Amino acid sequence: MITITVSDNDNPAKHPLPQLNGGQLAWQGRFEAMASPCEILLDGVNQKDAKQALALAARETWRLERKFSRYVSGNPVDRINRSKGEAVTVDDEMALMLDYATQCHDLSEGRFDITSGVLRQAWRFDGSDHLPEREDTDALLKLVGWNRLSWQRPQLTLPEGMEIDFGGIGKEYAVDRVLLNLRQSLPEGSSALVNFGGDLACSGPRTNGKAWIVGVEDHRKLSGSNETLSLRSGALATSGDSRRYLLRNGVRYGHILDPRTGWPVPDAPHSVTVAAPTCTLAGMLATFAMLQGIGAEHFLEQQGVQFWVQR
User: How does the cofactor bind to this protein, according to its record (predicted)?
Assistant: First the structure.
């Protein structure tokens, strides 16, 4: 095992240092970020290049976490959420994310909304049977709604009391960003796979021409995977409620909330996994499908993508 050294500026949250394992030309790098285990798999790469690639991946992921997490005091998201109705000018990368959030909101007919994070004040998905009162969720709905804010690039004006939260798209964006950086930095003929908590993308098949083998978690068996998939290109992303739910009178309430009602989507699958050219797109489609509830499979069939649904 090789420990990768990074500076405090690269890792201000003091995550454990990245660890590199492997040998010859096959390597596995691991680190923590975005409340997820993160790993990169490298094929056809020497040790020196593998160490540099892992350090690069960790630095970029931690940068994105610092910038887009709602938990980091003083970062751009925090400044927006504390702006009290004043216009905030954002940089190009933040503008890109806000444009994407607009697109997601419009395409989902309001089901995907990055202002809906305030609903967590009423919901605690801890496996118990405790449901919030309707008046509590109804009160929070007054602070939810993409159409309530003003986004005129590069200025965002957020009404006082409202918040934005990139939790639904940030991790998938990070996977794509890190893979892009690896493509540009690794030697020609090598291959890489980036996996952040089960959302993943690869640069192509392994150097021997074989596919990467990845597992899809069975919600009935959280200790392991019951199905493996072969991935030669593109990405996979999963949305589900295996670990975050409430159970009351035999009814399961998953953590996927409909921002139009403030309550969990009825008849939503336990999980949806989607294959797409990029992790960002795969994640968007998986989340959209969860938000469709009983219509998840029909929605995905209309998109013409490969998918796996567990109910």
Answer: Magnesium. Can also use manganese.
